[in-house]
Automatic annotation (TrEMBL):
The lineage of its organism: Archaea, Methanobacteriati, Methanobacteriota, Stenosarchaea group, Halobacteria. CDD domains: TenA_C_BhTenA-like. Its EC number is 3.5.99.2. Residues 13-213 form the Thiaminase-2/PQQC domain. This is Thiaminase II. GO terms for molecular function: thiaminase activity.
Length: 219
């Protein structure tokens, strides 16, 4: 069994919980409270800044040119294509790019981005691969599930379209191969990879919950 399959098996119950989360179900059918979605847009924008940083650091750490090219290409596509979706959703809410950039991170967003950036600086390339994998495969699987249960087009359809697009699917496919190659090349890292994968996967679940409850600091 490949490394990515092993990790996905270890995270099966977290995947199921994500697909059943009310944020996911209500986004799919278009009934999600716009305030919860606005919270997601703002927090995810701040998340993606650090997510792009994770790919950039991984790209700088990689030894071979093909891996560097791919990781730095994904960093660019996050900053460009993916964050453009957020900028256009934000514009619908009358939120400027400067306001998005100035959004204060909620506790879950702090926890998730700190974990990713810390892994980027302190972890091995194998751990970084495992930490970023749930963010890619998780969004693709959740969006595929949304596309299956969505009955008609609505205000959130561009979200489903972006995360089920051929471009995003190809990036996820590459990340899966990256995880598999790290798993094979560094057997001594497998335990650390599984721990990083599970932490990211659980934080993915918590991120839906953060947006749905419009989590703040209460201060
Ligand atoms: C929290 C989170 N995780 C993953 C993705 C997909 N890049 C995202 N936009 N936001």
């Amino acid at each position: 069994m490949s490394g990515s399959q092993r990790l996905l098996e270890a995270g099966a119950e977290i995947w199921a919980a994500q697909k059943a989360h009310p944020f996911v179900v209500e986004l799919a059918d278009g009934t999600l409270d716009p305030a919860a979605f606005e919270h997601w847009v703002r927090q995810d924008y701040r998340y993606l800044q650090d997510y792009a940083r994770l790919f950039a650091i991984a790209g700088a750490t990689a030894r071979d040119e093909a891996t560097m090219t791919e990781l730095l290409g994904i960093a660019h596509s996050v900053l460009d294509t993916e964050m453009d979706l957020h900028r256009s959703f934000a514009a619908d809410y009358g939120i400027s790019r400067a306001e998005l950039e100035a959004t204060e991170k909620a506790p879950t967003c702090v926890a998730y981005t700190n974990f990713l950036v810390r892994t980027a600086y302190e972890g091995s390339l194998a751990e970084i691969a495992a930490a970023l994998y749930p963010c890619m495969q998780g969004y693709l699987d959740v969006a595929d599930h949304m596309a299956e249960i969505a009955e008609e087009e609505h205000r959130y359809t561009p979200f489903i379209e972006l995360y089920t697009s051929d471009e995003f699917r190809a990036e996820v496919e590459w990340c899966r191969g990256f995880v598999d190659r790290c798993w094979e090349a560094a057997p001594g890292e497998r335990e650390a990879m599984e721990a990083a994968f599970r932490t990211s996967a659980k934080l993915e679940y918590r991120f839906w919950e953060m947006a749905y409850t419009q989590e703040g600091w209460g201060l």
